[in-house]
Amino acid sequence: MILGNPSILIEGNLYEKVDELERKREKSLSRLSRQDIDRTLIADIRFEEEKIIQDKVRMVKTALEDRKTFEQKTCIIDDYTDFIYECWRNGFHEETYNFTINNGYNNEGKMVLVDPGELCFTKEKVLKQIKNEKWLNQHSYNRDLSQLLQDYFKDKMREEVTEEKLESYWKDSVKE
């Protein structure tokens, strides 16, 4: 995240990071536009001329804030790991693990992705992220979860987001 990384503010780094994010976004959207995936996973994303249109959702961060008990909040984390599997079944992965700000719930109560700008379509890259436990260094984990929820999230991700499950669920997507 740009604001979470002070070295980005050094002259030139911010512009480089913005350029990198724009390139990633364009690559993700281009690949997504020609993928045969379940579009409902990405808030029923549609491309119309120069516009990206998605269904309105209730953001995960808001859902976490609205739920009162620890058990209710952990259900959201459980939904997130299930959502990861659905993405893998469709041959892609959202690589930031910032589920509180990049995901929401649609009108049917199903978790969806709202920010398709940083998608990964290669199992090898996802495997590297799993081995590095990338989710432990992200905004959603470090800033949006209480210590109790961080502990639950860390344990749940270690249990559910594994190399074995990646192998089991991953569907190869269209080659570039």
Please describe what this structure looks like.
- By secondary structure, the protein is mainly alpha-helical.
- The chain is built from eight helices and seven strands.
- The strands form three sheets. It has a three-stranded antiparallel beta sheet. A two-stranded antiparallel sheet has the order 1-2. It has a two-stranded antiparallel sheet with strand order 4-7.
- Strand 5 and strand 6 form a beta hairpin.
- It is globular, with a radius of gyration of 16 Å.
Condensed summary:
α3 packs parallel to α7. The mean pLDDT is 88. This protein has eight helices and seven strands; from the N terminus they run αβββααβαβββαααα.
Low-confidence stretches: none
Q: Care to count the β-strands?
A: 7
**Fraction of residues in H or I helices:** 40-55%
Shape: globular
Give the termini separation: 27 Å
Q: So how many helices?
A: 8
Rg over CA atoms, rounded to whole Å, is 16 Å
Strand content: 5-15%
Side-by-side strand order of the widest sheet: 3-5-6
How does the major sheet shape up?
3 strands, antiparallel
